[in-house]
Amino acid sequence: MPSPMTAWSQIFVKGPMIRLPRHSLAAVMLLVAGAAAAHEGATGIVAERMNAMEDAAAQAKALVRALKASSPNTANIRSQAERIHAHAHDTMRMFPPGSNQGHTFAAPEIWTERGDFERLARSYDAAAERLVNAATAQDLSEVRREFAAVRSQCLNCHEKFRVSRSGH
Fold first, then answer.
1. Measured between alpha carbons, how far is 125 from 24 in angstroms, rounded to an integer?
2. Which domain holds residue 102?
3. pTM
4. What is the CATH number of the domain that holds 100?
5. pLDDT category of residue 84 using cuts at 50, 70 and 90
6. CA dist 84 → 18, 24, 61 (Å)
7. Which residues on neighbouring strands pair with residue 11, listed in sequence order?
8. How many folded domains does the chain comprise?
9. Are 74 and 25 in contact (CB under 8 A)?
10. Nearest-angstrom CA–CA distance, 74 and 139
11. How many whole angstroms separate alpha carbon 49 and alpha carbon 31?
12. Confidence of residue 26 (pLDDT cuts 50, 70, 90)
């Protein structure tokens, strides 16, 4: 089976193209579509982080649509980037010790390999901050590059630290 990072698809937008992992768009769509079922039984910080991840996925999906528009709305793009960054900046707080109990898709390795998790969370936060900076500068080419970096960070973390919803 090819690595997820080698299974590329092309998303065409006005201007340069974005190359993202093929399944990353499907993952965003599944996250948004399956959110209600995913939250069943989640409470407290677990429900909070599920809501944050759902919102980050919704913002990513909206950002894809915005970048495909014939006249991208840079104010909306900036707002979406800022919301993604807010969630990215809050990632480590949303995974405190003991929050791996009950209904969660968080893998136990978040707590047993905390250093790796924190490194990936910091990389996600930094990529999201660069996305905001590009959106603030209204540099759509840079927004596209940084958005691809943010999505890559999401994928990297989920590959290692998220339990599959299907139980596999």
1. 18
2. 8-161
3. 0.75
4. 1.20.120.10
5. very high
6. 18, 16, 11
7. 18
8. 1
9. no
10. 9
11. 13
12. low
Is the distance from CB of 66 to CB of 135 less than 8 angstroms? no
pLDDT in tens, 108-141: 999 999 999 999 999 999 999 999 999 999 999 9
Q: Which residue in this structure is represented by tokens 């109990």?
A: 101
In which band, very low, low, confident or very high, does the pLDDT at 167 lie, cut at 50, 70 and 90? low
Whole-number Å distance between alpha carbons of 141 and 90: 27
Neighbours of 25 (CB within 10 A): 16
Q: What is the DSSP letter of 21?
A: E
Residue of 60, 91, 102 lying closest to 161 (CA atoms): 91
- Rounded Cα distance between 123 and 1, Å, is 27
Residue 1 maps to a domain: no
